[in-house]
From TrEMBL:
GO terms for molecular function: delta(3)-delta(2)-enoyl-CoA isomerase activity. PANTHER family: ENOYL-COA DELTA ISOMERASE 2, PTHR43684. Its main location: other. It holds the Pfam family ECH_1. The keyword Transport does not apply. This is Enoyl-CoA hydratase. Keywords: Isomerase, Peroxisome. It comes from the Bacteria. It is found in: Peroxisome.
């Protein structure tokens, strides 16, 4: 089964996670495929908007931790690092429609979207500290800027889950929609964006992103280095092993 689906139409490239039996947890193959899809969309002049969505009841349960522990060490050229930088610098508008559990990288991904639609059943979680790890994908920069220090600490240090209505109220999404209506509303929003004048759309996004670009990429790299060290440590290994054991017992 293809775990990442790509579809083009009307100036829109839709990239869909398609591993519902694993709650769309991302392994290294996913990261490579997502990178391929994203670079193809960026390089295609017919694509004006890139949409992220997912099959099944959950958008993304975060990283596939068992696969992550067995993969190559994080660093330049790693599929994860390559995708994070590509998304952070994507010149085309990024739109996401999310439902169900939105965990870890699934949640930090939303910070790099230009527009986010949340289904009413969406629940966001940033459980890095609980796993003996640290925030990633520039969330240590973007969440405090978006929410303020206190609320960012509530999510990143305490690891509190955030329901969809609160996420909307805090400014992490543009719209809250009924779960059954999410696909249609996502398509409608993507079409509206794709119908805009193409050059002006790209220029507008570039102007919005420019003030933070260098700091954004520097933060991604700094977080990756600390994340790499934490992942190799006893604290994270023990926490992750315990979590995987609990999952295996279900």
């Amino acid at each position: 089964m293809n775990t990442v689906l790509g579809h083009d139409g009307g100036g829109v490239r839709q990239i869909r996670l398609n591993r519902p039996e694993k709650r769309n947890a991302l392994d290294l193959a996913h990261y490579r495929r997502l990178g391929e899809q994203l670079h193809a969309a960026i390089g295609d002049p017919e694509v004006r908007v890139v949409v992220f969505a997912a099959e099944g009841p959950d958008f993304c349960a975060g990283n596939d931790l068992a696969d992550f522990l067995q993969g190559p060490e994080l660093g330049p050229g790693h599929p994860v690092v390559e995708l994070l930088h590509a998304l952070a610098s994507c010149p085309k508008p990024l739109l996401a429609g999310v439902q169900g559990n939105v965990v870890g990288i699934g949640a930090t991904l939303l910070l790099h979207m230009d527009l986010v639609l949340l289904a009413e059943d969406a629940r966001l979680a940033f459980p890095f500290i609980d796993l003996g790890l640290v925030p990633e994908f520039a969330s240590s920069l973007l969440l405090p800027r978006r929410l303020g220090h206190v609320r960012a600490c509530q999510l990143l240090l305490l690891g509190d889950r955030l329901d969809a209505a609160t996420a909307l109220d805090w400014g992490l999404a543009n719209q809250l929609v009924a779960t059954t209506e999410l696909p249609a509303r996502l398509e409608e929003t993507a079409r509206r964006l794709a119908a805009k004048p193409a050059a002006a759309l790209l220029a507008g996004k570039a102007l919005l992103k420019a003030p933070l670009q260098a700091q954004l990429h520097n933060t991604i790299d700094r977080e990756i280095e600390v994340f790499r060290q934490a992942l190799a440590g006893d604290e994270a290994r023990a926490r992750i092993a315990a979590l995987l054991a609990r999952i295996g017992e279900r």
